[in-house]
Amino acid sequence: MTGPVNGSGARTVRSSWGGRESRVERIITRGDFTLDGQSFDVENNVWLIGDDREVLVVDAAHDPAVIAAAIGPRRVSLIVATHGHNDHINAASELAERVDAPIALHPDDTMLWETIYPSRPPERLLHDRETLPIVGGTVTVLHTPGHSPGGICLTGRIGGASVLFSGDTLFHGGPGATGRSFSDFPTILSSIRAKLLSLPPDTVVHPGHGDDTTIGAEALDYDDWVARGH
């Protein structure tokens, strides 16, 4: 079953394990992405994975009050940053304080994190192929550098479906942007080919910005991305 959650344009996938319901909720927040002396107004997807009692947060972006309101009284097990760009972490510290939860980041993006939080390190460092508990199961961390050195995705099965939380590694229409500091186009292509296109074609991709897609739909255009160079 799919439908809106909290009036935020969320997409919901529901299933039950032992009487508990699992869902994926999307909250859309808006603010600035700043890098290399440039600033852009962007909308970000914030993802909640869990049920009516507990959630894991993916990418605490821009507005901790809006995210905390969507969480409500639920326990937050972890706040995961898919990478260290400011628009994916600028609400993380305040949200962590509001909901009393740790923050997790891949160590290769520490230099990006420290530009926003020079004296507040994340509590947990993520590593490729480690598993994180969620209600009813686990999600697996995939290290997918290219958009940034420490970019990660999360993959698992929710509601009987294969899902991927892709951060800024993969979008509807192709790879995340490269050409700025700490990014590299051949690297992101390699990450997508090795780590993501091997997932089931019907895997639903929940990106850091914009609309959902599937692995199968994006795989059809891989050769076009190589040819166009972005």
Question: Brief description of this entry?
Answer:
With 230 residues, this protein is α/β, with parallel strands linked by helices.
Topology readout:
Layout: E1 15-17, E2 20-35, E3 38-50, E4 54-58, H1 64-71, E5 75-80, H2 86-89, H3 92-99, E6 103-105, H4 110-116, E7 124-125, E8 131-134, E9 137-143, E10 152-158, E11 161-167, E12 170-171, E13 174-175, H5 185-196, E14 204-207, E15 213-214, H6 215-219, H7 222-228
Parallel strand pairs: 4-5, 5-6, 6-7, 11-14
Antiparallel strand pairs: 1-2, 2-3, 3-4, 8-9, 9-10, 10-11, 12-13, 14-15
Helix pairs in contact: 1-3
Helix and strand content put the structural class at alpha/beta
Roughly how much helix do the residues carry, as a percent range?
10-25%
Q: pLDDT average, as an integer? A: 92
Query: Strand share of the residues?
Result: 35-45%
What would you report as the Rg, rounded to the nearest angstrom? 16 Å
The biggest beta sheet reads: 7 strands, mixed
Shape: globular
Tally of individual domains: 1
State the CATH topology.
Metallo-beta-lactamase, Chain A
Q: Segments where pLDDT lies below 50 for 5+ residues?
A: 1-17
Question: If helices are DSSP runs of H or I spanning 4 or more residues, what is the number of helices?
Answer: 7
Q: Considering the protein shown, what is the CATH homologous superfamily?
A: Ribonuclease Z/Hydroxyacylglutathione hydrolase-like
Cα-to-Cα separation, first versus last residue: 35 Å
**CATH architecture level-2 label:** 4-Layer Sandwich
Description of the structure:
Helix 4 links the parallel strand 6 and strand 7. This protein has a seven-stranded mixed β-sheet. The chain has a six-stranded mixed β-sheet with strand order 8-9-10-11-14-15. A two-stranded antiparallel sheet has the order 12-13. The protein starts with 14 loop residues before the first strand and ends with a helix. The N terminus is likely disordered. It has about 230 residues and is α/β, with parallel strands linked by helices.
